[in-house]
Amino acid sequence: VGRAIVTGCEKAERLSEFAWIILTNEGLDGARDLELALASAKKAMELSGEKSPSVIDTYARVLADTGDLAGAIRWQTKAIEACTDKRLERMLKKNLESFKKRSEKESA
User: Is the predicted pLDDT of residue 28 greater than 90, yes or no?
Assistant: First the structure.
C-alpha cells in the first residue's frame, strides 16, 4: 500500500508528510520501512524542485535515520538557507544540531 501511495501521489507536501509519519510515528517502532520513507522523501524533493524547507528537512531526517549523517547535515543546511519563516528556521537549526551531534558521536 505504501508503495502505491508514493507512486500515485504527485504532491510534494503529502509525500513529505507520509515519510515523516514513517520516521516518527511511535506505533511503527521496530517496523519502520526506511526504504519507503526514503522513496517518498526523494519524490517529494523532486516534485518541490528541492526548494521547500519542510520537504528538505524531511529528506535530511531520512538520510540521518538511514546512516547518511553527512548528507543529512548538507541538506539540513540547505533547508535553513531556503527558509523564510523564523519559527521554522529555529526548528530546522535544532535538527541540524542534532545531526551534527550524532555525527560527532559516531566518529568518536
Answer: no
Distances in Å between the Cα of 9 and the Cα atoms of 2, 13, 46, 63, 96 are 11, 10, 12, 21, 28
Instruction: With a cut of 90, say whether residue 83 has pLDDT above it.
Output: yes
Band (pLDDT 50/70/90 cuts) for residue 80 is very high
Question: Which residue bears the cell 523564510?
Answer: 84
Taking a C-beta distance cutoff of 8 angstroms, is the pair 77, 57 a contact? no
CA distance linking residue 1 with residue 33, whole number of Å: 12
The alpha carbons of the chain give a radius of gyration, in whole angstroms, of 13
Q: For the packed helices 69-82 and 86-107, what is the interaxial angle rounded to 10 degrees?
A: 160
Half-sphere CA count of 13, side-chain side, radius 13 A: 2
End-to-end CA distance of the chain: 40
